[in-house]
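Morning run. Coffee first, then this:
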Amino acid sequence: MSGSPDTARLVVEQAAECGVELVASLPDNWIAEVISAFDEDDRFRHIPVNREESAVGLCSGAFLSGTGSMALMGASGLMTLIYAITKINYTYEIPLMLLATLRGAPGDKAKFHVSNGLHFLPSLDAINLTYEVIDSRDKIPMIGKIYRHTRTVSRPAVAILTRDVLRGDA
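And here it is:
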């Protein structure tokens, strides 16, 4: 899937307005354009990681040092983080901003992501993880609101981007 450079720029601008300086990412073809935009922007320190837990550790440590951060990943990756989020972020009240994709939803042609469509949002609901599905371009400013919310409640939250938004179709 080819992402929209305009959407990527809007996401990056939201992060910059919030004071995000560090971005940890895992490869995901749906957000490849967003990851590239962060990597190419000198306002951010972009750190590609090989495990989702590394993104949680980096972003949580960044918060403790006073540095704004955000972790980018696919839905599958976020689903592997239930223990890390509940143990680290919930227990120690460490805010964490996550940006994820909504895989397995209608329109996703990858059959192997069907389980994400069935279990992703219910899994987030099960641990009371605040999230907002960003399914139109005009909702992209919610990223800033979600980031600020993580700081207010000292808990993690997720901005979930749909396929159509990432492609610039919504």
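The first helix runs from residue 5 to 18. Good start to the day.
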